[in-house]
Amino acid sequence: MSSHEQQAQTLVEALPYIQKFTGKTVVVKYGGSAMTSDTLRRSVMTDIVLLNLVGIRVVVVHGGGPEISAMLKMIGHESKFVDGLRYTDATTMDVVQAILCGKVNKDLVAQLNRLGCRAVGLCGLDGQLFQAERLDEKYGLVGNITAVNPHTVENALQTGYTPVVSTVAQGVDADTAYNINADTAAAKLAEALGAEKLILLTDVRGLLRNPRDENTLIHVVRTQEVPALVEEGIISGGMIPKMQCCVDAIHGGVERVHILDGRIPHSILIELLSDEGVGTMMKKEETP
Fold first, then answer.
1. From edge to edge, which strands make up the β-sheet containing 197-202?
2. C-beta of residue 62 within 8 angstroms of C-beta of residue 165
3. Confidence band of 286 (pLDDT split at 50, 70, 90)
4. What single string gives the DSSP state of each residue in 130-188?
5. pTM for the whole structure
6. 21/177 Cα distance (integer angstroms)
7. How far, in Å, CA of 246 to CA of 188, rounded?
8. Pick from 27, 104, 108, 280: most CB atoms within 10 A?
9. Each residue's pLDDT tens digit, 97-109
């Protein structure tokens, strides 16, 4: 088959998926090495622009851990982690808010705009998008989301904008902002928007039966299989809270959740618009 025929075949294969998802909402949680590599960042941004152009309503929720760590180092403030979460004292919270809601958010918005998207930056404080209370004293100013008000995001989507959301929340139990886990924030926002899909970009292939063998990728997981997979140790460490986010999102009404390897260029397009699929998809158990 010639390269032209292959290109045509790819487009034909994408057509039913475009027809299925046009007008639907997809939430993409963007982080990891896909954020820190210029090539991968451009690949993700291009995917988002293309999805947008074929009528899929894309919402980007992003983290920014490396940039926060770099700024803390610059000001001579130590980065500390407790149970995998960044310990957030008042100084760290100031840096988180400045870097996430400011530099990282606006850099992503600018890059999407340059690629032909109409992007708009929001943070969880805008329109009280994310409200939260303190998760636990031991994490400092890390929040647990208590409410999501998606109206600002919905308004942006309805007027043709692509919202880019940073994960800082407004405190309801104290006069402070809270740092929020980006996976959790993306899952809660996907629920509130009634999203068709939630995509979590990570630095692994997906869920592996053997973490040392990428050929053991589990392509489909049903929500009720998760407890047994945790018990067997197949879901372990940082994958436990990630998978719990996925289960919560499905129970909250999201149709499908995909854990994708952000190190694979255009992994979003491959997963959404082709027969192939490159990550782990979670769905509800079918009722008999």
1. 119-123, 162-166, 57-62, 25-30, 197-202, 256-261, 280-283, 220-222
2. yes
3. low
4. EEEEE--GGGBSBEEEEEE-THHHHHHHHTT-EEEEE-EEEESSSSSEEE--HHHHHHH
5. 0.94
6. 35
7. 10
8. 27
9. 999 999 999 999 9
